[in-house]
Amino acid sequence: xxxxxxGDEFNFEDALTLSDLLDSLELDxxxxxxxxxxxLIKSExxxxxxxxxxxxxxxxxxxxxG
Length: 66
What we know:
Beta-grasp_dom_sf; 1 helix; Mopterin_synth/thiamin_S_b; Sulfur carrier protein ThiS; ThiS/MoaD-like
């Protein structure tokens, strides 16, 4: 399965839930905002959304600073 994440093409063996995809990218789900096909997704929905062929994702990670 091919999808676009932050403008870059990624290939995965099978369709994944958003939660599984974030795990595979080693991203902290508590610090991520996900836009899936132009729709903002709440973290409570990460297990319910399946990323499929040609989906487009924008991932933004909160980073603290001081």
